[in-house]
Design a protein that fits this description.
Helices cover 61% and strands 17% of the residues. The protein is globular and about 35 Å long. It contains 3 helices and 2 strands, in the order H-H-H-E-E. It has one domain. By secondary structure, it is an alpha+beta fold.
């Protein structure tokens, strides 16, 4: 059941997280879509585990573009400390 929840969360996460989407696309070319989403879900689970261990929230914020022509859709994982 937990695997199913992570897979569902991964479908949403690949739409918002640029790096996770890259992982999905790379795996999709090699292994196929179904296995690729499971791989993305595993990486998402690892990120969430890391956030829990460090006591921070998982949040995706836009990258600071150095070039004016950079796409606004680029995203990066940013950890924000949780107030105690």
């Amino acid at each position: 059941m937990l695997r199913h929840l992570f897979v569902e969360a991964a479908w949403i996460a690949i739409q918002k997280d640029f790096k996770l989407k890259e992982v999905y696309q790379c795996l999709s070319k090699i292994r196929g879509g179904k296995r690729a989403i499971v791989g993305a879900a595993r990486r998402l689970a690892g990120r969430l585990r890391s956030c829990v261990q460090q006591g921070v929230l998982y949040e995706i914020k836009p990258l600071q573009a150095k070039d004016a022509d950079a796409k606004n859709e680029l995203r990066d994982l940013v950890a924000i400390p949780v107030a105690a």
